[in-house]
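Methods: example folding runs. The two proteins below were folded one after another, and each record is reproduced exactly as written to the output file, sequence line first and structure-token line second.
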Amino acid sequence: MQRINFLEMHDADYLKGIAKELQDQVHSVLYDFDYDIVKETIKEDSAEVIINFKSKDIYDSLQKAQKEATKKTKALFKKNPNYASSKVHKEIMNIIYSSIKDIHKVKEYQIPIHLIKKDDQWIVADDNHELESALLENATELIEIMNQ
């Protein structure tokens, strides 16, 4: 699988109370991808490349984890109404992270990527919204689940 450098984990990115190894595994599921070039169209200093983009499909696991986390949270508060919200947050994150760390289901779709030639090198142009969306889709789904 591939990963883009700006999506790497740094010390400040780790959440306290959740094992770093688990967070690294989840980070890989969220951001690693693979691709195959389907078609290239080159016109002087610009090009369009159609890729078959493949990444992990976390949606179903997130839905199940959310239900499990809701049950766990209700049980914790029923047992102790003064249960600390920081502890609840850690419990929820551990449940969600544990549910997606070992996902093998893959989603794939074709994405056009616009390239420009600069100093004899092909670079990805700034106007690649479909690529950006694909790279961040899993993280967006995780954030949406956390905000429900």
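Second run, written to the same file directly after the first:
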Amino acid sequence: MAGLAQTPTPPDEFIGLKWGISNDEAKQIMKAKGAGYVQRGSGENHLIFSGATAAGLAVDYWDLYFGGGKFQRGKVGFKDEYDIDGLFKQVKKILTEKYGTREKETFKGDPSADWHLTNLGSKDGITIHLYVHSKNRQKHLKLEYINDALAKQFPDAPEEKAGQDDKL
């Protein structure tokens, strides 16, 4: 039908990592991407990697979370850039072109943008959170994808600890 906007389909992956894959599968994919495994802080339900790229941008670290042995949430911290606000706008533009208008956006303080993409007839979907994290006058850009259904089904994935955004 002409004139009707098509609702974007929720992604079935987080930057090349399919939802629901195992810890071992994720390690193989990340190794192929050229990311280095970080032993310290990693465990059965939480893997940390450093390096490689996402959407053509240099990544400082990757946080991958598992519940019930299945990948359900991923986050990247992009390498520090001099113009963090410009980087935020660049990544936001990429996500907006792919997934449409943001559900929520904040400009007060550190900027953030959120998308929630659902499959037809379902409340569950994928939540995407892009945000700038500030600490000690330094800003860092973070991008997180959460598979809502897997997070509800397997709530044993570790919660982030205070200060976890500051590692590496």
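Comment on the second run: Residues 13-160 form one domain.
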